[in-house]
């Protein structure tokens, strides 16, 4: 077991070789995954000295973002755009221990320096509006109902002045579809704009075709131990899991098709009833791959790095894995035996080939500290329940974590129904009930799951009836519920790797079906009630003002009389033509009137 | 008994005729009266309860706007704002009467020129040998200092560059002039100089008033009557200046960016360069504040839509066509978003072309910098030799001087600046006037809008803002008349801001439009059946009463 080896390796590499040297560094780590995927992890770091940041002299730090943050007095910002699902069962632990990951859609949390709560809230709205414009995302819709203020789930990562009065805000937009229009402004923030360096691999077509991807931006002040020469640091990361088969499909013809017969490779170990049958071998299980296959292009030179002092491209696998490169200047192999890094040429193209080989040479699959599943239970339009399964895979150690959930206001949980399958596992609980149309309810639980056990957490909730105008377009789809955030406090206390390293993971979002009205209802109501009222009114009114007389006393002068005469003659004509035998006139008359 | 259909029809008709003879029993008067009262009471409920209730619930709140006053400002009152010039005379060695003589001489000289028709000229004597010292609180447009210099043969008037002072050198002999006309020479010299200094301002003011539709003054130089080539050129020059310069704002953001298509230079010594070459200018421009930010953008080639530069073999330089300058900036990819926060942003772009494309100049003029009206300026750095990774302060000096020039031009300063403090004074006066005109025109439009669209709501907020704007306009006019231009500018700015806010109030446009089908769909199901019944009964009742009256 090599839990969180990946993250450990990358962290150690970044801090040792590149980060300390320059104001800008970038890193790409490719990690082949079983059965046929690749985790590509891009990391870009830029620094600006605190004084130049305050005076708005921007060099590598993007001006557009810097000005927004200064305008909103945001001292630390974390922004995430994610889609897809991380398959923890087959891929193991999350990259960066989940710290660079967000829930599906857009997630943002920030620390704002403000003297009062109202002011901080105002700045938070300003910040969201400005970021919405910068990143082409609907973040302006993060209003008070989508804002939460978790107590212990997030801690500021930067070194902040002790005098500043920081307010934490957290917002999530689950329904937001992350796409190319978010990637383009993301790339514009980089000093080399995705034109050279590892960022030249990033292409919207491939990135958003990935099985799982997350883009993150973290801005925080970082101070060295002696508190002098503080810098504002912006770290942008993109992590994605690419399916090799899918990536290799030509762009013009992305539909998977069966191979022609002559190219089929049959499994020779099986017995066949006749010559025409074939059990094809699963070729994707072991495939060669190149950067061009994966990303559609090769790396175009290096960005801002002086020749061979940095190693921007790494492959996280056993050092016995065969890797072929073109134009690589130098190679660095980590002593752990599971990471090698390559220096890029200054201007030429760089290509990398990993031939097809045994999975034993890949990085061993690590075990995450906890597995989570969250789902909605119950049926009907009125009520429902939430059930969370938390499985601690460690055979020896307990795992403690903070479970944070921000529910929309129309989902009203009954806290008295909160149950755990194992008693006394909730150490602490913070619950802030929601207010209709003002804020959602917020739940934070400090939980410890004993070793090798599954904890089931469940509670019931009631669905509120929304107003006519509060339904989104496509109301029958249901409303999204933001993913729960889990912050692992101590995963395995014994192993040194985990000390001081925060780990996060997020559940998948939920879909909450809500009772939807018939949207033409207001008009129907108007018409129906109006008709009833008009009927009643007409009857009463006529009763009051009409004179009631006998049938033979009714006057028939004018138009009415003429119409009756005409009608009677027409009817008689028809009747006469139909039946040869006609009744007598006076008798008919009696019948009619 | 058998009858044919025709007979049947006539029979029916006859029976109906016969039936007329059988009358219903007459209603007694009490019932008739009761019925009339029923109809009357129903209708009174409709008219006195229903209708007012409907009107009250569907009415649109329209606050009272001082429409007449707003229109008055828009149609002429704004044109009456005057921006007088005050000349202050310091002549420690002249007697009061001598100074008065010089003033008379100068007044005579400038009255013969048409320039000072539009601005009132005032004089004050702040320092003379014997006379009383008068000192106004008003702002002095120009102070004229007299310096005795017996060696000079003719009077010399000279504008000092660092202050708004006109230095006049004279010899005492000139004062004791022959023919009984005193100080004609000095007056003439001063008059000519004043004319030269203030012609630009006069032209700007005239152009402002001429281009404002509300003023129907026949202005000599820009009116349609004087349409010879000379006037046309004057007008075009003024128009160019107006379109180029930004509107006045109390704060401007200056954003200086370096763009280069390659990886160098990676850094520039811009902080030091700004503090040395740009800050002095910004600090002395006292009517506005500035914030400065800078950025460095690598790998930013110019727009792909631009035609690539061509090489001129004779001059050994790369040439961009003038018509291509519009496409030079890659607005889609260059991060040139305006600053967040109030105030307009002025962008200055330093472009360092690739080594293979140097020197890069504009076709025709051979220049390497240009202004983008109301937006900013661009300058190309044609560094000789390899570009250093760090651009030093010395490299940036010519660039920042170009930017300073462009900045002044964008702020509305004249092309041939005389003295900077005097320019600033001039800009204050012109900005005051233009803000007053623009605020008035906004108020006029708002008044017209409110009058022409009867269905838009007018919130109290708008009325309040309009009142405030009118007050500020009044104050601006008063201050301007008194020569206190700094406060006049401030009031004019406030007036403009209030007027704009009133005009763009978002509650005014909301719910302006309910389609008629919508209204029909809501009202008809109820009002149709009820209305028909009520109306029919009313008509019947009236009809019933009419013949009784005529009888």
Automatic annotation (TrEMBL), chain A:
Membrane-crossing segments per the record: 521-541
GO-annotated cellular components: GPI-anchor transamidase complex
Lineage: superkingdom: Eukaryota
InterPro entries reported for this sequence: PIG-T (IPR007245)
Leader peptide range in chain numbering: 1-20
Pfam families linked to this entry: Gpi16
Protein name per Swiss-Prot or TrEMBL: GPI transamidase component GPI16
Automatic annotation (TrEMBL), chain B:
Principal location: endoplasmic reticulum
Pathway annotation: Glycolipid biosynthesis; glycosylphosphatidylinositol-anchor biosynthesis
Transmembrane stretches, start-end: 38-56, 520-539
Taxonomic superkingdom: Eukaryota
Pfam families registered for this protein in UniProt: PIG-S
Keywords: Endoplasmic reticulum, Glycoprotein, GPI-anchor biosynthesis, Membrane, Transmembrane, Transmembrane helix
Membrane topology note: Multi-pass membrane protein
Signal peptide as annotated in the record: none
GO BP annotations listed: attachment of GPI anchor to protein; GPI anchor biosynthetic process
Protein localization: Endoplasmic reticulum membrane
GO cellular component: GPI-anchor transamidase complex
Family named by the database record: Belongs to the PIGS family.
PANTHER family, per database record: GPI TRANSAMIDASE COMPONENT PIG-S (PTHR21072:SF13)
Protein name, as recorded: GPI transamidase component PIG-S
Biological source species: Gomphillus americanus
């Amino acid at each position: 077991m090599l839990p969180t080896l990946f993250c450990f390796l990358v962290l150690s590499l970044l801090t040792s070789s590149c980060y300390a040297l320059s104001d800008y560094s970038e890193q790409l780590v490719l990690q082949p995954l079983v059965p046929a995927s690749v985790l590509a992890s891009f990391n870009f770091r830029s620094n600006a000295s605190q004084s130049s940041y305050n005076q708005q002299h921007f060099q590598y730090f993007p001006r557009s973002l810097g000005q927004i943050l200064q305008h909103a007095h945001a001292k630390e910002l974390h922004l995430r755009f994610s889609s897809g699902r991380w398959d923890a069962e087959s891929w193991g632990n999350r990259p960066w221990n989940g710290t660079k990951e967000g829930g599906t859609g857009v997630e943002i949390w920030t620390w704002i320096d403000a003297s009062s709560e109202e002011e901080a809230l105002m700045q938070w709205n300003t910040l969201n509006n400005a970021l919405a414009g910068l990143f082409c995302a609907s973040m302006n819709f993060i209003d008070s109902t989508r804002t939460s203020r978790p107590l212990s789930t997030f801690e500021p990562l930067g070194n902040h002045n002790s005098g500043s009065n920081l307010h934490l805000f957290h917002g999530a937009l689950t329904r937001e579809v992350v796409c190319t229009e978010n990637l383009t402004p993301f790339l514009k923030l980089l000093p080399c704009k995705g034109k050279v360096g590892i960022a030249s691999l990033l292409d919207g077509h491939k990135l958003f075709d990935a099985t799982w991807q997350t883009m993150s931006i973290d801005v925080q002040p970082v101070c060295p131990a002696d508190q002098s020469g503080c810098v504002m640091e912006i770290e942008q990361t993109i992590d994605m899991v690419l399916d090799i088969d899918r990536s290799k499909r030509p762009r013009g013809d992305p539909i998977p098709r069966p191979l022609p017969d002559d190219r089929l490779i049959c499994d020779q170990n099986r017995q066949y009833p006749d010559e025409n049958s074939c059990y094809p071998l699963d070729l994707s299980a072991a495939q060669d791959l190149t950067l061009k296959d994966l990303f559609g292009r090769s790396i175009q030179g290096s960005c801002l790095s002086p020749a061979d002092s940095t190693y921007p491209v790494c492959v996280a696998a056993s050092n016995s894995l065969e890797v072929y490169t073109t134009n690589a200047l130098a190679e660095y192999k980590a002593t752990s035996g599971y990471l090698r890094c390559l220096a890029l040429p200054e201007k030429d193209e760089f290509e990398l080939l990993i031939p097809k080989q045994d999975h034993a040479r890949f990085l061993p699959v690590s075990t995450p500290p906890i597995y989570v599943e969250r789902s909605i239970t119950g049926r009907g339009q009125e009520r429902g329940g939430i059930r969370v399964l938390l499985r601690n895979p460690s055979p020896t150690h307990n795992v403690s974590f903070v479970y944070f959930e921000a529910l929309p206001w129309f989902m009203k949980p009954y806290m008295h129904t909160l149950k755990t399958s194992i008693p006394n596992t909730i150490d602490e609980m913070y619950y802030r009930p929601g207010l209709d149309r003002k804020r959602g309810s917020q739940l934070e639980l400090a939980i410890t799951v004993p070793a090798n056990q599954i904890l089931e957490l469940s509670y019931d909730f009631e669905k509120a009836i929304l107003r006519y105008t509060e339904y989104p377009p496509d109301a029958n789809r249901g409303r999204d519920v933001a993913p729960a955030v889990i912050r692992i406090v101590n995963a395995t206390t014994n192993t040194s790797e985990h000390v001081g390293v925060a780990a996060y993971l997020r559940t998948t979002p939920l879909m909450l079906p809500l009772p939807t009205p018939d949207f033409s209802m207001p008009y129907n109501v108007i018409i129906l009630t109006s008709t009833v009222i008009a009927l009643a009114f007409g009857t009463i009114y006529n009763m009051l003002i009409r004179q009631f007389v006998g049938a033979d006393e009714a006057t028939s002068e004018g138009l009415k009389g003429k119409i009756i005469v005409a009608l009677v003659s027409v009817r008689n004509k028809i009747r006469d033509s139909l039946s040869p035998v006609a009744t007598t006139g006076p008798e008919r008359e009696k019948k009619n009137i | 008994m058998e009858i044919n259909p025709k007979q049947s029809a006539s029979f029916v008709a006859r029976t109906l005729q016969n039936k007329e003879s059988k009358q219903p029993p007459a209603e007694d008067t009490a019932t008739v009266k009761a019925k009339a009262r029923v109809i009357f009471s129903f209708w009174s409920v409709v008219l006195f309860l229903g209708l007012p209730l409907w009107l009250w619930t569907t009415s649109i709140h329209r606050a009272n706007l001082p429409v007449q006053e707003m229109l008055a400002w828009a149609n002429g009152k704004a044109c009456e704002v005057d921006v007088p010039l005050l000349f202050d005379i310091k002549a420690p060695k002249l007697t009061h009467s001598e100074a008065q003589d010089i003033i008379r001489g100068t007044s005579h000289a400038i009255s013969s020129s048409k320039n000072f028709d539009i601005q009132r000229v005032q004089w004050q004597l702040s320092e003379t040998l014997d006379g009383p010292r008068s000192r106004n609180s008003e702002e002095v447009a120009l102070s004229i200092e007299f310096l005795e210099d017996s060696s000079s043969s003719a009077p010399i008037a000279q504008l000092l560059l660092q202050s708004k002072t006109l230095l006049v050198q004279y010899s005492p002999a000139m004062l004791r002039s022959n023919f009984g006309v005193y100080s004609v020479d000095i007056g003439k010299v001063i008059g000519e100089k004043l004319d030269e200094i203030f012609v630009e301002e006069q032209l700007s003011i005239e152009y402002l008033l001429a281009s404002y539709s509300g003023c129907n003054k026949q202005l000599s130089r820009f009116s349609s009557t004087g349409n010879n080539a000379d006037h046309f050129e004057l007008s075009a020059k003024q128009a160019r200046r107006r379109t180029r310069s930004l509107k006045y704002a109390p704060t401007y953001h200056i954003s200086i960016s370096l763009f280069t298509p390659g990886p160098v230079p990676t850094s520039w010594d811009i902080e030091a360069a700004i503090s040395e070459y740009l800050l002095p200018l910004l600090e002395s421009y006292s009517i506005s504040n500035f914030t400065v930010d800078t950025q460095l953008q690598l790998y930013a080639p110019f727009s792909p839509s631009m035609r690539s530069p061509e090489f001129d073999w004779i001059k050994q330089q790369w040439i961009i066509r003038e018509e291509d300058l519009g496409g030079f900036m890659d607005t889609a990819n260059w991060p040139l978003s305006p600053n967040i926060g109030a105030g307009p942003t002025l962008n200055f772009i330093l472009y360092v072309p690739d080594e293979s494309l140097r020197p890069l100049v504009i076709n025709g003029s051979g220049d390497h910098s240009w202004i983008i009206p109301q937006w900013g300026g661009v300058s190309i750095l044609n560094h000789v030799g390899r570009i250093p990774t760090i651009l030093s302060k010395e490299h940036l000096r010519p660039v920042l001087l170009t930017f300073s020039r462009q900045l002044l031009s964008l702020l509305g300063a004249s092309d041939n600046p005389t003295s900077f403090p005097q320019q600033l004074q001039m800009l204050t006066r012109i900005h005051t006037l233009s803000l007053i005109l623009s605020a008035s025109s906004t108020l006029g439009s708002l008044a017209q809008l409110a009058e022409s669209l009867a269905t838009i709501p007018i919130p109290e907020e708008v009325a309040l803002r309009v009142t405030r704007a009118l007050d500020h306009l009044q104050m601006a006019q008063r201050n301007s008349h008194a020569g206190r231009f700094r406060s006049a500018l401030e009031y004019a700015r406030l007036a403009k801001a209030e007027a704009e806010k009133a005009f763009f109030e978002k509650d005014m446009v909301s719910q302006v439009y309910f389609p008629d089908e919508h209204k029909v769909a809501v009202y008809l199901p109820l009002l149709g059946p009820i209305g028909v019944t009520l109306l029919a009964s009313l008509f019947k009742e009236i009809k019933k009463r009419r013949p009784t009256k005529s009888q």
